[in-house]
Amino acid sequence: SDGSIRLHQMTSEYPLMQWNDSTNGQPIIALQWALTRPSVFFVLDASSNIYIWDLLENDLLPVAKQTIPSENVVTMALLGEPEKTNGLLGIALAKESGQIDIQYVKKKWALP
């Protein structure tokens, strides 16, 4: 609820990494790991911002932030086929009105 993210290992109750206030205090609505690149995850906050984290590029801050204008995004889901190496990765965004947007991610964050 405060924008903090914690990365845990299944064998420990203590986080390996913790990022406080990663969304400038906005609650996190959804967080998902990339299906095609294990070091990348996506975060959606309550202000309809999507943060892209690539832990191989920067493990302190997100590598990109995208604001979805005009309407609140209520959830997201990632689309892709992990067994394929074509680097195709998409994000399905569900908006408050019921509209669904699908956006494709740059290959640098999608390639294995």
Automatic annotation (TrEMBL):
GO biological process, alphabetically ordered: intraciliary transport
InterPro entries, alphabetized: DYNC2I1 (IPR042505), WD40_repeat_dom_sf (IPR036322)
Organism: Circaetus pectoralis
Gene Ontology cellular-component annotations: cilium; cytoplasmic dynein complex
Name this protein carries in UniProt: WDR60 protein
Sample GO molecular function, one term: dynein light chain binding
